[in-house]
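Help! Submission page says 'invalid entity' but I think these are all valid:
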Amino acid sequence: MVTIHDVARHAGVGAATVSRVLSGNGYVKLETRERVMQSIRQLNYTPNEMARNLYYRKSGIIAVMVPMLSHPFFSELVNAIEVSLCNKGYQTMVCNTFYEKNYELRYLEMLRCQRVDGIIFGAHMSLASDQYRSLHRPVIGFDRRLSEEIPFVAADHETGGRLAALELIGCGCRNIVQFGDAEDRVATPSSRRHTVFRKVVEEHGIPCHSYSERQKYSSIDDYDEAVARMFEEYPEVDGIFGTDLYAAASLRQALSIGRRVPEDLRIVAYDGTHLTRFLYPELTVICQPINELAEEACRMITDMIKGEEVLKKELLLPVSIRKGRTT
Amino acid sequence: MVTIHDVARHAGVGAATVSRVLSGNGYVKLETRERVMQSIRQLNYTPNEMARNLYYRKSGIIAVMVPMLSHPFFSELVNAIEVSLCNKGYQTMVCNTFYEKNYELRYLEMLRCQRVDGIIFGAHMSLASDQYRSLHRPVIGFDRRLSEEIPFVAADHETGGRLAALELIGCGCRNIVQFGDAEDRVATPSSRRHTVFRKVVEEHGIPCHSYSERQKYSSIDDYDEAVARMFEEYPEVDGIFGTDLYAAASLRQALSIGRRVPEDLRIVAYDGTHLTRFLYPELTVICQPINELAEEACRMITDMIKGEEVLKKELLLPVSIRKGRTT
């Protein structure tokens, strides 16, 4: 059976490169990509385990719950998860929860009747931990501590918040704004970046204004409205920190009202999705390692399905800063 | 049981508005959105059919095959499909094919052993039509004519191509470029827009340069590289037509080399994904009706699963133009 390692050997690259080519995340030179795709075709590589595994497992299906699949971060994450699960012989079922507890509960109920082998929880609401136990199947949290005993994987958001704060401070910003999480949302590892961001900014004697999302459910218009409100209420802002979507909306509105970026206004984005690659001037971004997060989440859940013990219950992967032209 | 119509009545809006709020596509005023979400919470609305239906069906799962889930068009499409299927009591399984026949064949094989109730084919490669027949379950094509007897749904791409051409011509463009499909890819309804675009441009006595994708698999870097090559080979270009990703890459590069948009260079995008909402200046876009396409595809496949005959085998939904600041 042809594996990803055979493809890598055939193409003369590492398995990580093959994985990057397949997921479409991360830079791979055009020539290398073409060589890898050629090897895939020549070796007739496909996730061959799949059909075989189906005979040994109940369903071969793993469910992934996210707030909204059309959000760039979650679409890239689920894309990478699908690739990784497919390579391991599993199929991916997606569930959108719209940041709503109702949906999450209903999906849980449904998954209880459904024959899925495991569940990756990337949704954002909080349920009692016995809700997860009662599923009687492997569960992991993505960016979310579901209970003491349920393993989770997340990016090192504290470092992310610190890097962002230091970048804006280093540029001389004195009027800093961050777009934060809704206050009534459960504390996730990712919300730690906001706490740390504020702490670092204030330690430098600079006030930090936080704008919370007014609601749990977010469409594109929410970002635009929140940013417009911020510019109105706080016109002296000279440094902005927020997810890619907030940062992109801030950049667009800043340019449209004639603010010069980065001369008068600095922006640091958080996530590092494809969106940030299409903007001008290019955003400075704290990048989450989306592929690696997906890879580790899939490794954890499939290990658990195979009955193996997950030794490291909390896995934090490093973030990185990609300097653009907005700082 | 609470239905989407109860929510609509409770919130004093139409069911289509509730659907728009849930999918996050299309503009809904903040107040209306909040009212709808409040009704959802108050009525404890969830896709209630789901659990019940599971007892009557083999699996309650419908597979959706797309080239790449992280592509904004497909992430928004699959998001809307998940919402619609969920409302109808089905779960969504996603399959990425990476524009590769290998993958598509393997998924077909797997779906044959798997208990999925139906398949929506949004992938782009071409298989013999008996491959689909041998699945022995309901199948529809998304943007793709799989065989004479298999129904499909698509946007009215011919009108889309015509609108784009007329927009650029109307702006006085004399050196027009379009980014087209790979030549070796199967002719889909969507590739018709390129044929029509060229025809309309040439009928006005203007030459039309087409750039084909050099390969089937596309990452962000491909768009950047293709656009950079075009600007090098054809610096006199004054009108560009391409999908959102090509248009966004063109806009970014044009600004970075000091081309004035729209004074020296006009751009029309095709698709109308979220990405276009974040760019400055705002792109002029031919919008596909993503929500309605998803809704119709789901209606078709679930009707077929229920044993109902699909009378209209080819469903083309209207596109629209959204004028921005790039024309």
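Support: the input was valid. A stray whitespace character was the problem, and the output above is from the cleaned input. Confidence is low (pLDDT under 50) at residues 47-57 of chain A.
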